[in-house]
């Protein structure tokens, strides 16, 4: 076998692994990158990029339905599902060169397209090579969880990895799982003309603030998405199903799928999407040979993202925490400091944003109200501002929304936002929490008028208003100044 000596070995060419490889090689380190699948990982090929491209197409299809509010008459759009999926693939192809093997080899990274397996604490075997590295980064990401539902193996079901192979529009898409992926794909497909049913064993968007998530779920119901919450799927079977001509499942023409729920009811559709979460990819890595411990959710790391083998780091989904592309990139930037410069660094989680890209969008930075109350108790203050009181939102006919800031001793510890482009508003609050800024600094910001972004300044105003306008002390001071100061 060919033997390679390197400073840094990165296993996995998703967003986290690519950020480490690019940063390290450009700062002078010798870097080897090993990837057995597609460059760019899940985000580019099956996750963030294709899903947002599909959501954009669905938004275009839905836009004419809102035109009447502006005094505009629009024609009913005709959806060509194959062309929509061609748009999705075009978006992937446009972004792919940034993550390509050619680009990284051009930067000086040695790229090996093979699956990796540890053979010792510092050695990995991949594609006929034995790679010995001073530091190793595991950035292998995650894959969809497929629950052990009786009968599921007997039907052709979809996951976020296989959904993009469809070229004929589903007649009735059934989705098991009401998390962000399930909700985003439910609304997108409904807007593209599919019947859609979502089944969730608990509460859809159950991790989010219920007040905020209900605004999203209410919109889905209004648009015709059927939400079955608090029921689980007990069995899956093939059945005769009605649907659009030419839109039957990938199984047999004229055949469909029936879900039997634990309350005895059934749902029959043409296609089934499983969106019940994701699990870390560690199988086949031979972590035992490296002395790397794993836990229930992934690889066990310390605050610096080091594993039980101090030469090995785990980042992104592999580290067993939240599963976001931007978190993987943040992890990658964090470990560069100790790996290249020997300086201490710790990964934080209190400022990491997350967004469900439904319409309206739902964004969360830091703690939800319930989490903040549990941690901070009576010290917590909650400030709110409705999008309906924002002039730009009114002019755009998008007044549905709310921003809520959880504040402790003048500093926000969490912000929840639901409304049009909530993810864009979350950028400001991610900056605020990352730098531990105060509400007074947000209040000092001058926003251009009219912008929906003013809601962030206005929620800071809502925090200070009771302290200023309802304070007898303030009123007495003002009275004295007006009476005695010339």
UniProtKB/TrEMBL annotation:
| UniProt xrefs under SUPFAM superfamilies | FAD/NAD(P)-binding domain, FAD/NAD-linked reductases, dimerisation (C-terminal) domain
Q: Where is the FAD/NAD(P)-binding domain?
A: 7-332
The record's GO molecular-function terms, alphabetically, read:
flavin adenine dinucleotide binding; NAD(P)H dehydrogenase (quinone) activity; oxidoreductase activity, acting on a sulfur group of donors, NAD(P) as acceptor
Keywords, ordered alphabetically: Disulfide bond, FAD, Flavoprotein, NAD, NADP, Nucleotide-binding, Oxidoreductase, Redox-active center
Disordered: region residues: 237-256
Q: Which cofactor(s) are needed, names only?
A: FAD
Q: How is the cofactor bound?
A: Binds 1 FAD per subunit.
Residue sites binding FAD per the record: 52, 140-142, 317
Q: Residues that bind NAD(+), according to the entry? A: 177-184, 277
Disulfide cross-links: 43-48
**Positions of the Pyridine nucleotide-disulphide oxidoreductase dimerisation domain:** 352-457
Please, which domain of life does this record's source organism belong to?
Bacteria
KW NADP (keyword) present: yes
- Which Pfam families does the entry mention? Pyr_redox_2 (PF07992), Pyr_redox_dim (PF02852)
Q: What does the sequence similarity comment in the record state about its family?
A: Belongs to the class-I pyridine nucleotide-disulfide oxidoreductase family.
Q: What is this protein called?
A: Dihydrolipoamide dehydrogenase
Q: Specify the species.
A: Marinibacterium profundimaris
Q: What is the lineage of its organism?
A: Bacteria, Pseudomonadati, Pseudomonadota, Alphaproteobacteria, Rhodobacterales
């Amino acid at each position: 076998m060919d033997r390679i000596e390197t400073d840094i070995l990165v296993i996995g060419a998703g967003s986290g692994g690519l950020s480490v490889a690019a940063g390290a090689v450009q700062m002078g380190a010798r870097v080897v990158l090993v990837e057995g699948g597609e460059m760019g990982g899940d985000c580019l090929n099956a996750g963030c990029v294709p899903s947002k491209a599909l959501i954009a197409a669905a938004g275009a299809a839905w836009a004419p339905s809102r035109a009447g509010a502006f005094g505009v008459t629009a024609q009913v759009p005709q959806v060509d599902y194959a062309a929509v999926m061609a748009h999705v693939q075009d978006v992937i192809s446009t972004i792919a060169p940034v993550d390509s093997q050619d680009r990284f080899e051009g930067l000086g990274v040695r790229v090996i397209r093979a699956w990796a397996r540890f053979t010792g604490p510092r050695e990995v075997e991949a594609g006929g090579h034995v790679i010995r590295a001073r530091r190793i980064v595991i950035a292998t990401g995650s894959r969809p969880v497929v629950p052990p539902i009786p009968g599921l193996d007997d039907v052709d079901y979809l996951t976020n990895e296989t959904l993009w192979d469809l070229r004929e529009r589903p007649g009735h898409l059934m989705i098991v799982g009401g998390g962000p992926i399930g909700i985003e794909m439910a609304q997108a497909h409904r807007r593209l003309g599919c019947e859609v049913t979502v089944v969730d064993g608990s509460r859809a968007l159950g991790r989010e603030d219920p007040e905020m998530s209900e605004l999203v779920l209410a919109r889905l119901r209004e648009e015709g998405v059927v939400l079955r919450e608090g029921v689980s799927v007990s069995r899956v079977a093939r059945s005769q199903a009605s649907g659009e001509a030419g839109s039957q499942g990938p199984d047999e023409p004229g055949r469909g799928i029936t879900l039997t729920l634990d309350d005895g009811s059934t749902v029959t559709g043409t296609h089934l999407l499983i969106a019940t979460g994701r699990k870390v990819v560690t199988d086949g890595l031979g972590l035992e040979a490296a002395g790397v411990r794993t836990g229930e959710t992934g690889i066990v790391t310390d605050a610096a993202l080091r594993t039980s083998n101090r030469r090995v780091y785990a980042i992104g989904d592999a580290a067993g925490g939240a599963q976001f592309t931007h978190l993987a990139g943040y992890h990658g930037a964090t470990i560069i400091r100790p790996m290249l410069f020997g300086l201490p660094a710790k990964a934080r989680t209190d400022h990491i944003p997350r967004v469900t890209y439904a319409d309206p969008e739902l964004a969360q930075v830091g703690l939800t109200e319930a989490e903040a109350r549990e941690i901070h108790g009576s010290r917590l203050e909650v400030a709110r501002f409705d999008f309906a009181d924002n002039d730009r939102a009114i002019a755009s006919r998008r007044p549905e929304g709310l921003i809520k800031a959880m504040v402790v001793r003048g500093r926000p510890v969490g912000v929840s936002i639901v409304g049009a482009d909530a993810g864009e508003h979350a950028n400001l609050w991610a900056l605020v929490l990352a730098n531990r800024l105060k509400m007074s600094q947000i209040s000092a910001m001058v926003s251009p008028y009219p912008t929906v972004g003013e809601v962030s300044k206005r929620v800071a105003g809502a925090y200070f208003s009771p302290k200023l306008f309802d304070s007898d002390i303030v009123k007495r001071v003002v009275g004295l100044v007006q009476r005695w100061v010339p």
